Amino acid sequence: MNIFGQLVEEIIKDQEGIIGPIALEQAQKVPGLKVDLGKHNVQFEGNQTDVIENLVEKYKEIFGQASVEVCKEAARKILVGVSKESIPPLLQ
After folding, report:
1. Which of 74, 66, 60, 1 is CA-nearest to residue 26?
2. Are 77 and 25 spatial neighbours (Cβ–Cβ below 8 Å)?
3. Is 31 helix (H, G, I), strand (E, B) or coil?
4. 5-26 average pLDDT score
5. Are 13 and 5 in contact (CB under 8 A)?
6. What average pLDDT score do residues 64-90 get?
7. Using the 8-state DSSP alphabet, how is residue 79 labeled?
């Protein structure tokens, strides 16, 4: 799994710690994202950065800025050394 797949997995796990199974349900509604956490499988259709941005936006719409901060913390753990241009704007 690439680093962006790892990021999605970490974001969902961190969100699950706060909001429970709704986190995965919401992730599965994001266009271009297919997730099977049990198999550690994350697939993207389209631009990975845009899909991750949409995932963060989905959590923000429902649970507010606190969810964005949880996503940013996950990104800080995973995206060490990734160029700023490659990081979704909501996670910068």
Report:
1. 60
2. no
3. coil
4. 94
5. no
6. 91
7. -
